[in-house]
Design a protein that fits this description.
The chain is of the alpha+beta class. It has helices at about 15-25, 60-80, 100-115, 125-130, 150-160, 205-210, 285-295, 345-360, 390-395, 415-420, 430-435, 450-460; strands spanning about 5-10, 30-35, 50, 85, 90-95, 120, 135-140, 145, 165-170, 175-180, 185, 190-200, 220-230, 240-245, 255-260, 265, 270, 305-315, 330-335, 335-340, 405, 410. The strands form five sheets. Strands 1, 2, 9, 10, 11, 12, 19 and 20 form an eight-stranded mixed sheet that branches. Strands 13, 15, 16, 17 and 18 form a five-stranded antiparallel sheet that branches. The protein has a four-stranded mixed sheet with strand order 6-7-5-14. Helix 2 packs across helix 8.
């Protein structure tokens, strides 16, 4: 408690982790507090994983500016931190004549915002790009891309860590007291003294703001439900396919999103809810998503669904009916920087948001760059993507690559061990899953969870009752009935 930090960041989503990495370029004491068991457990791990090219945003807003800038920054950033980034293009499809004006509006908007290469194309060209998609016309955006939001956020956090920032997991900010030239921040794990606070608490940013004495923001969560399709149908789609969204919808309409790992995601819906932590999937929405998606991709079947999840959009409530709701990124008073209402395209805009925050800080503080800053983080091995020769070489050097733990995703024991011994010290089953992809396939862990649990037991020797799916309260066992067959 006697130590005084320079910056305390609240929230380990993609925005907080990006800011932590940017601050780690300078000679500063920075701590990021995340209440969950790992980074990317909030909205940053519950979205479409799309790097938006910038044509959806209303021109001259901060959202538009930071979307386009973030989209420009992401390829180099992903390369540096070892996260996959695939440019696959996007089609916004019109199925009826009266939807075509919306495509023209998006094109005009995108051109003002600085989106490159937008073209209106007809049904013939649509079917050349996407043989399985039905459309009358489409807006084609060749620079739209996909990424793995977990890889991106984890990569940022790990890179910030090796450059000196501290990432404190399972650490919930509960109280903030403002003194003359510093703050005390109470958490469930103890107190911090800090000269500055950066609030990037996502769905809870209004509450953190109020704790720091800035009242008046209110976030209304808008839930988006998704279904993940089996890799077996991944070949049905080459690009991102979005519809013309329904009027006054809280999102971009139910879209079809290929993932960097070869699945397709279907969703999200848009329903305003009361609790930010309500992440339910509902049968009505499942039917609605399937019906809407089949209008574009008739070959879709319910039996192809392997997993459902939901993410909540942190919608900022406007203070008047004619206000355009935009991102709030500002220093409310000296030492307290607020980021509120960071909804879509926050994943894309995150590097530009961090750049803007550093810009705010540089207006009043001199930041001294560290010569030792290392922007690189090695890409984790994905055994399943290697050639047979590469696999053989790895197995010869490290026999744990020769044992498959997750059959559906062909994840090896070595990859699971690397995930388990991650630099952030995250120890849950979900932490292993989001790093290695073990249990992300069709059986969803039915086959590999017992093996993963054995590896956790062997490596970390925890009490059985302390093995968790994720954070507090997600304990998986109360005791042992018999010994499982051991993996050697
Ligand atoms: C359905 C959906 C689809 C989307 N699709 C896209 C897309 O395709 N492309 C795109 O660019 N954007 C997309 N977005 C938006 C994007 O996901 C978000 O804008 C972005 O993830 C916000 O990141 P964040 O770091 O601000 O928030 P979060 O990821 O929510 O991080 C905030 C963190 O703060 C932590 N926290 C909260 N309170 C406390 C506390 N008291 N103490 C400590 N920690 C705390 C939370 O646990 C959380 O981890 C989508 C969003 C949704 C909901």
């Amino acid at each position: 408690m006697s130590e005084v930090l320079d910056y305390l960041i609240v929230g380990g989503g993609v925005v907080g982790c990006n800011i932590a990495r940017e601050l780690s370029r300078f000679d500063l004491k920075t701590v990021l507090c995340e209440k969950e068991c790992d980074v990317a457990m909030g909205t940053s791990g519950r979205n479409s994983g799309v790097a938006h090219a910038g044509f959806y945003m209303i021109p001259k807003t901060l959202k538009a500016e930071l979307n386009v800038r973030g989209h420009q920054m992401l390829p180099a950033l992903c390369e540096e931190i070892g996260a996959q980034y695939n440019v696959i293009g996007k089609l916004v499809v019109a199925e009826k004549d009266d939807e075509i004006p919306y495509l023209l509006k998006l094109k005009r908007q995108g051109e003002i915002n600085g989106t490159q290469g937008l073209r209106l194309i007809d049904a013939d060209e649509v079917s050349k790009i996407e043989p399985n998609i039905r459309a009358l016309k489409a807006l084609y955006s060749p620079t739209s891309a996909i990424l793995d939001p977990f890889q991106l956020t984890i990569g940022l956090a790990e890179n910030a860590l090796i450059n000196g920032a501290r990432i404190e997991l399972n650490t919930e900010v509960l109280e903030i007291k403002h003194h003359e030239d510093y703050f005390t921040v109470e958490t469930n794990k103890g107190s911090y003294k800090t000269r500055n606070i950066i609030n990037s608490a996502g769905l809870y940013a209004d509450k953190i703001s109020a704790l720091a004495g800035v009242e008046g923001y209110r976030i209304y969560p808008c839930r988006g439900e998704y279904h993940v399709l089996d890799k077996g149908v991944g070949h049905l789609l080459n690009t991102l396919v979005y519809p013309v969204p329904p009027k006054d919808s809280g999102g971009l309409g139910v879209h079809l999103t290929p993932t960097v790992d070869g699945n397709i995601m279907l969703g999200p819906s848009a329903d305003y809810i009361n609790e930010p932590c309500d992440l339910a999937n509902t049968p009505d929405v499942m039917n609605q998503l399937l019906d809407e998606a089949r209008l574009m991709l008739p070959a879709l079947k319910r039996k192809d669904f392997i997993r459902s999840f939901a993410g909540n959009r942190p919608k900022l409530i406007p203070t008047s009916s004619n206000e355009t709701v935009d991102y709030v990124i500002k220093e409310e008073y000296e030492g307290f920087i607020n980021l509120v209402g960071i909804e879509s395209p926050g994943l894309t805009a995150a590097p530009a948001i961090a750049e803007r925050v550093i810009g705010l800080i540089k207006k009043r503080d001199e930041l001294i760059e560290k010569k030792s800053f290392n922007p690189k983080r090695d890409k984790p091995v994905r055994f399943s993507r290697l050639t047979d020769e590469q696999k053989a070489r790895l197995i010869a050097a490290e026999p744990a690559y020769g044992q498959i733990v997750c059959r559906c995703e062909t994840v090896t024991k070595k990859e699971v061990l690397d995930a388990l011994h991650n630099p952030l010290g995250a120890k849950s089953i979900n932490s292993i899953k989001i790093r290695s992809r073990a249990s992300m396939g069709r059986c969803q862990g039915g086959f590999c969870w017992p093996k993963i649990v054995q590896l956790i037991e062997d490596e970390l020797k925890p009490e059985l009752k302390d093995i968790r799916l994720c954070g507090a309260g997600s304990n998986m066992f109360i005791g042992k009935t018999k010994d499982l067959r051991r993996i050697k």
